[in-house]
């Protein structure tokens, strides 16, 4: 039954002109809500909040399950059946369980990130999706304003690329086409964090349909470096399944959404 549903979903939204972000609200009305993501962050307008604490993760590498080309993004799934890999502190009220890692990127390295900081768009963005374990399950958490926390790591092309990205890039040939999945054991995603843990935070939504408004965003101030070869490898994925012609999986990022009356806060350092 679940297979059927995901096929139907894949027909209703994507990133092309016909089914792209401008039309998501037709099937998913909340995509036109007041608390949508991503947003533009202007550091001069950010409220420096002395009450904001550092955040901490305790990730169990054994929780990593598989890596998948969904046809929309690259996704790594983690076991979230108990408090095995968790995020806490920062702006969060409790303990959040790691569920998945997602990567968004562009067709060229001057675009691809979803959040834009001080008018700069980066080559890509990594999302670590966690849910509030005080709720009974993930589906329940999606209905609550404090249900989900996403750490966003911006990727920029630069010197000394982060060697930790290699582990993900090495698996790409195994998941070339949509729906392909490979085992991805023993991975601790905290190796991807930038050295500086300071962050911006605001209340927003998922950046993919249904775009539920249940997300506390923790956007890392410091990007991580990747190289052009790594970006080319991501762009070599296909958004079509193996039996269809190759169609590059790229530009899977949502354009900026209005901030409306929301406040973006940051740590004082």
TrEMBL record:
Any one GO molecular function term: nickel cation binding
InterPro entries (alphabetical): CA_dom (IPR001148), CA_dom_sf (IPR036398), Carbonic_anhydrase_a-class (IPR023561), Carbonic_anhydrase_a-class_CS (IPR018338)
Main location: cytoplasm
Family matches, as Pfam families: Carb_anhydrase (PF00194)
Biological processes, Gene Ontology terms: response to bacterium
GO terms under cellular component: cytosol
Needed co-factor(s): Zn(2+)
EC number: 4.2.1.1
Transmembrane segment boundaries: none
Superkingdom, taxonomy of origin: Eukaryota
Alpha-carbonic anhydrase domain: residues covered: 11-268
UniProt signal peptide: none
Keyword list, A-Z: Acetylation, Cytoplasm, Glutathionylation, Lyase, Metal-binding, Phosphoprotein, Zinc
Reactions that this protein is recorded to catalyse: hydrogencarbonate + H(+) = CO2 + H2O
Class in the EC hierarchy, top level: lyase
Localisation per UniProt entry: Cytoplasm
Described function: Reversible hydration of carbon dioxide.
Entry similarity comment: Belongs to the alpha-carbonic anhydrase family.
Entry protein name: Carbonic anhydrase
């Amino acid at each position: 039954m679940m297979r059927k549903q995901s096929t139907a979903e894949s027909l209703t939204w994507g990133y092309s002109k016909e089914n792209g972000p401008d039309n998501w609200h037709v099937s998913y009305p909340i995509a036109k809500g007041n608390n949508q993501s991503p947003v533009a962050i202007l550091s001069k307008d950010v409220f420096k909040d002395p009450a904001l604490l550092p955040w901490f993760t305790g990730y169990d590498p054994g929780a990593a399950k598989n890596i998948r080309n969904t046809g929309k993004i690259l996704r790594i799934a983690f076991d979230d059946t108990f408090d095995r890999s968790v995020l806490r502190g920062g702006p969060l009220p409790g303990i959040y369980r790691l569920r998945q890692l997602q990567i968004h990127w562009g067709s060229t390295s001057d675009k691809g990130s979803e959040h834009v900081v001080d008018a700069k768009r980066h080559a890509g963005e990594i999302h670590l999706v966690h849910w509030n374990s005080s709720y009974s399950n993930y589906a329940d958490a999606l209905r609550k304003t404090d249900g989900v926390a996403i750490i966003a790591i911006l990727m920029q092309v630069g010197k000394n690329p982060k060697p930790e990205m290699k582990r993900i890039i090495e698996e790409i040939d195994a998941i070339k086409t949509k729906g392909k999945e490979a085992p991805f054991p023993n991975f601790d995603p905290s190796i991807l964090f930038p050295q500086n843990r300071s962050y911006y935070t605001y209340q927003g939504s998922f950046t993919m349909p249904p775009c539920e408004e249940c997300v506390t965003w923790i956007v890392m101030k410091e990007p991580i470096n990747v190289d052009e070869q790594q970006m080319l490898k991501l762009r070599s994925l296909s958004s079509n399944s193996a039996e269809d012609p190759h169609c590059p999986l790229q530009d899977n990022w949502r354009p900026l959404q209005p901030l409306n009356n929301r406040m973006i806060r940051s740590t004082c350092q």
